[in-house]
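[recover] target loaded
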């Protein structure tokens, strides 16, 4: 199959597209007439679908054929050009907007009812008094419990138009009758700053989990608070951050760089370039900075790390990042679905492309972790393969490399043992959440008058809780020996209990105790005199 024959059907998918640029400020001048021009290959595909629709011997859902066709086309372009079906679009849009309209709770479909994990701070549900452990039984007389309840449709009754009201009937342990609440739906934030607190008197910590529309305002608020508390140094944690809007990443970088410093270069297939620069006085231009990255830090995270590294600002700590240097634009397909199509590459200020190769297909691309594991680069920076042809130099003479991710200034190895990998997974994946919810369902009242500070300093996860989790999770049957990781397991359980009681800040605060990368930062912070002694 020739190149044109293989790829020109892409025109079908974008014929009615309306560009919504994801994060970038590119303004390339492709003519609309050129993009949407009629051609025989597009007509051929339309005719084939009509033949199947009207003449094929069996009933066929041609909508699904179109979905499969669009997916097939995009998969043959690059790993990051993706199709968003109608039924997934709104959830994707909420995630990128950084908010949704609803009542503001996190919940489980637990057994045969809707169990509130906790009300989101400042949200509508919290304001009317809905608490963790409550069961929502009815929403506007719609039954939300029982085996016949369709769990996928539950959110439809809790979300709705902004300022609309929903009447809830709630069961609460200890109450003789059901409680009635009327909740006005509001915009509820999907928090992208997981945590912000002081590591010591001078050093602050902020963890960003993605770059949505609201991330910069969350970040600015967190940074201002820490500055007011007296910090002069900051740890910006971008580990496991998959990216998001480029414009958000640029605004965060702007807080650290002087005016007119180059942040990012984007270049399309015609070679047209767009450069973005720091534009104003940032709040932390004179502060000392550390940026934490790992193998799952991608896209906008790499823009931040690369811009700072190339401008000799701060110290990048961790392991080589994912390696995504492609820019997508979202384009509507006219039926509520959309594509995110790669329209440019981005380059760091020194001119580096950090996009890793993807010529061997999507499966090989996304299994790159296994390759890194096998070649030893998760344990030793010396195992990272670099090419002299992709060598660049920063203004102060630091040597940096392109060709696949950001290589940190200070390397921190990963514990790749099966037990530790398992522990890391269960700590952050939500695996423990059901067990913790069941534990709190029985003991929640014991935490009623305990502040987070008292919980962090005084609550001890005892052997009974650990044994209960091991029995619940059946790890003993999997023959995983977690005995030598018992303290880490206790910490993970405490962090998950803290999260359900006090929120994500509590979770990160507890889980970060003895974190290797944070310990490395604290080690770097020690005065040289102490190091020499």
């Amino acid at each position: 199959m020739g190149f044109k024959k293989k790829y020109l059907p892409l025109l079908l998918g974008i014929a009615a597209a309306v560009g919504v640029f994801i994060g970038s400020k590119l303004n390339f001048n492709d003519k609309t007439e050129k993009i949407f021009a009629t051609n025989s290959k597009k007509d051929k595909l339309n005719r084939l679908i009509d033949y199947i629709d009207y003449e094929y011997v069996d009933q066929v859902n041609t909508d699904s054929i179109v979905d499969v066709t669009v997916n097939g086309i995009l998969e043959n372009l690059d790993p990051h050009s993706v199709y968003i079906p109608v039924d997934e679009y709104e959830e994707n849009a909420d995630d990128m907007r950084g908010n949704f309209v609803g009542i503001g709770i996190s919940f489980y479909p637990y057994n045969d009812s809707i169990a509130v994990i906790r009300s989101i701070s400042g949200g509508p549900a919290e304001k009317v008094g809905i608490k963790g452990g409550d069961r929502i039984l009815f929403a506007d007389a719609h039954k939300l419990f029982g085996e016949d309840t369709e769990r996928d449709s539950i959110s439809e009754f809790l979300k709705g138009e902004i300022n609309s009201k929903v009447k809830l009937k709630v069961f609460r342990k200890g109450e003789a009758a059901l409680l009635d609440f009327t909740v006005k739906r509001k915009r509820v934030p999907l928090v992208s700053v997981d945590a912000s607190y002081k590591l010591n008197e001078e050093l602050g910590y902020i963890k960003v989990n993605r770059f949505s529309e609201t991330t910069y305002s969350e970040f600015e608020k967190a940074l201002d608070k820490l500055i007011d508390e007296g910090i002069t140094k900051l740890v910006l944690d971008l580990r496991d951050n998959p990216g998001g809007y480029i414009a958000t990443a640029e605004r965060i970088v702007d807080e650290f760089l002087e005016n007119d410093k180059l942040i990012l270069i984007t270049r399309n297939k015609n070679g047209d370039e767009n450069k973005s620069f720091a534009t104003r006085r940032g709040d932390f231009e004179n502060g000392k900075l550390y940026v934490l990255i790992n193998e799952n830090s991608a896209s906008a995270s790499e823009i931040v790390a690369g811009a700072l590294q190339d401008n000799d600002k701060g110290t990048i700590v961790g392991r080589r990042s994912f390696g995504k240097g492609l820019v997508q634009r979202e384009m509507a397909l006219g039926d509520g679905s959309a594509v995110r199509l790669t329209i440019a590459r981005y380059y760091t200020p020194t001119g580096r492309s950090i996009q890793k190769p993807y010529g061997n297909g999507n499966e090989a691309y996304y299994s790159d972790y296994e390759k890194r594991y096998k070649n030893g680069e998760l344990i030793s920076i010396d195992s990272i393969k670099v090419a002299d042809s992709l060598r660049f130099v920063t203004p102060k003479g630091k040597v940096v490399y392109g060709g696949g991710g950001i290589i940190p200034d200070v390397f921190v190895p990963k514990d790749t043992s099966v037990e530790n990998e398992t522990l890391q997974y269960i700590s952050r994946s939500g695996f423990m959440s059901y067990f913790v919810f069941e534990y709190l369902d029985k003991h929640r009242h014991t935490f009623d008058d305990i502040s987070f500070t008292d919980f962090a300093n005084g609550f001890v996860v005892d052997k009974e809780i650990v044994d209960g989790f091991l029995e619940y999770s059946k790890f003993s049957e999997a023959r995983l020996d977690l005995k030598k990781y018992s303290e880490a397991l206790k910490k993970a359980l405490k962090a998950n209990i803290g999260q359900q009681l006090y929120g994500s800040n509590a979770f990160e605060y507890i889980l970060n105790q003895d974190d290797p990368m944070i310990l490395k930062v604290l080690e770097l912070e020690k005065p040289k005199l102490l190091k020499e002694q």
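[recover] notes: Residues 1-36 have pLDDT under 50 and may be disordered.
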